[in-house]
Design a protein that fits this description.
The protein has 208 residues and is an alpha/beta fold. Helix 1 runs antiparallel to helix 5. A seven-stranded mixed sheet has the order 1-3-2-4-6-5-7, with helices on both faces. A hairpin with a 3-residue loop joins strand 5 and strand 6. The protein has a single domain, classed as Uracil-DNA glycosylase-like domain (Uracil-DNA Glycosylase, subunit E). It contains ten helices and seven strands. The structure holds uracil.
């Protein structure tokens, strides 16, 4: 099966999922969208009201900001893959509960395995914590890190502040914009250092 067929099949299964209570309170499941051959996968926290309405990730104010930042590094939404830790909107946009995140985790793992991106960019603290636990986003934002995830093997992660949080916080906005500009450099660093990093990998390695 092609990547597209595998993802289509996975998306269909996600829309039929009722593993946690979020599905009963949302309008649409938001599996994710973008290029199946994307080098970069962005992972947010969970759908908001607009995303729930349309069944698409990052289509509200935060999504507009994300699209602007992508344009600033000559990318379009269609060039990358955009998904979330949870695929159903938590009521009143509350943080997803640990059991909801756990219930959705296998979907995210399968998405990552199919797309097989070179770089996973986490958006916000909750997404970061899923892959880089016990870290502080204020300390590791804008630093590419290789980490061995048991279900995925070694992967490179790049933690960013969430665009929604940065939208209304001038300081954070500046930091996010600056970190975002480094993404092409991170990709180049991955291409150059891939084999040596895999061999020398211990736990977590700062790439740039
Ligand atoms: N915030 C997220 O984390 N994900 C979305 O899809 C939209 C807003």
């Amino acid at each position: 099966m092609s990547k597209k067929e595998l993802l289509d099949e996975l998306n269909k299964k996600m829309t039929e999922c009722s593993q946690c209570i979020l599905r009963s309170g949302c309008k649409n499941v938001v599996p994710g969208e973008g290029s199946v051959t994307a080098e970069i996968m962005f992972i947010g926290e969970g759908p908001g009201a607009k995303e729930d309405e349309l069944g698409r990730p990052f289509v509200g104010a935060a999504g507009k900001f994300l699209a602007e930042m992508l344009a600033s590094i000559n990318l379009k939404r269609e060039d990358v893959y955009i998904a979330n830790v949870v695929k159903c909107r938590p009521p009143q946009n509350r943080d997803p509960l640990p059991e909801e995140v756990s219930a959705c985790w296998p979907w995210l793992l399968q998405q990552i395995k199919i797309i097989d991106p070179k770089l996973i960019v986490t958006l916000g603290r909750h997404s970061m914590e899923r892959f880089l636990p016990n870290q502080k986003i204020s300390a590791i934002h804008g630093k590419a890190m290789r980490r061995n995830i048991s279900e995925l093997g070694p992967r490179v992660f790049y933690a960013l502040y969430h665009p929604a949080a940065a939208l209304y916080n001038g300081g954070m906005r500046g930091v996010l914009l600056e970190d975002f500009q480094k993404i092409p450099k991170v990709l180049k660093a991955i291409e150059k250092s891939n084999s040596t990093l895999i061999e020398s990998e211990k736990k977590q390695e700062k790439l740039i």
